[in-house]
Design goal:
Number of helices: 5
Strand order of the largest sheet: 1-2-10-6-3-4-5
Largest sheet: 7 strands, mixed
Number of strands: 13
Structural class: alpha+beta
């Protein structure tokens, strides 16, 4: 998969939990935004021992300046109450904030996949390329022809940067921005390491259902449906 460099921030939709699992010493803060609420988690890791220190869920307005203000207030209160000083911060945005598309490419394109995806972004996604952050996941497709499936994810720059500006202002420096679909799949694969068969992970979100399709231990598609 591909990371999009945003200064020192990475927009990534790969298995973040698997990356963090390789770290021996970690003081981490997770910020997960939903449509109407925000969850904050402070955890530590010392070699193989992972400890949940604090967790909190608070309501958020659906949109507008009030949502950003509530985000700032909730984060500052959480940091004050817990005295957390995280060295790893992950910001997780809700599935409804993202646009997702899929395509198939020849296996021979593997060596120039970044270029191929760069050409296809504006055709597949309903935004100009300069107005989004995007990343993609690849997976092998069966059949006689060697092909690669590509799941393409994008987030509007203005939305990502609004949250990052608040975090920077209160001296919190996230290392990663991800999406709920990716975070849920990463957590599932970490909790169920023997999961090898295709499956669908269903998560309710504000009257909708987020469906994450997993095959060969990879996220291959994500859809949002009204209930």
């Amino acid at each position: 998969s591909r990371d999009v460099d945003v200064g020192e921030i990475w927009v990534e939709f790969t298995a973040s939990f698997q990356r963090l699992a390789k770290v021996d010493y970690l003081d981490g803060l997770g910020l997960a935004l939903g449509a109407r609420e925000m969850s904050l988690v402070h955890m530590t890791k010392r070699f193989f021992q992972v400890t949940l220190r604090h967790a909190r869920t608070v309501p958020l307005p659906e949109s507008g300046p009030e949502r950003l203000h509530a985000f700032r207030e909730a984060l500052q209160q959480f940091l004050s109450d817990t005295d957390a000083s995280p060295d790893q911060v992950v910001l997780c945005l809700p599935r409804q904030a993202a646009s997702v598309s899929r395509l198939m490419v020849p296996g021979t394109a593997r060596g120039s996949l970044d270029q191929v995806i760069g050409y296809e972004v504006e055709r597949l996604l309903p935004f100009p390329k300069e107005e989004i952050y995007y990343d993609y996941l690849t997976y092998p497709v069966g059949g006689e022809e060697e092909r690669l499936g590509v799941a393409l994810f994008c987030l509007p720059r203005h939305e990502v940067e609004a949250y990052l500006a608040i975090l920077t202002d209160i001296q919190i420096h996230p290392q990663m921005v991800t999406l709920s679909s990716s975070a849920q799949v990463s957590a599932l694969l970490s909790c169920v390491p023997s999961l090898d068969n295709p499956c669908v992970l269903i998560g309710p979100e504000d009257g909708k259902f987020e469906l994450s399709f997993i095959d060969k231990r990879q996220l291959v598609a994500s859809h949002l449906f009204s209930s």
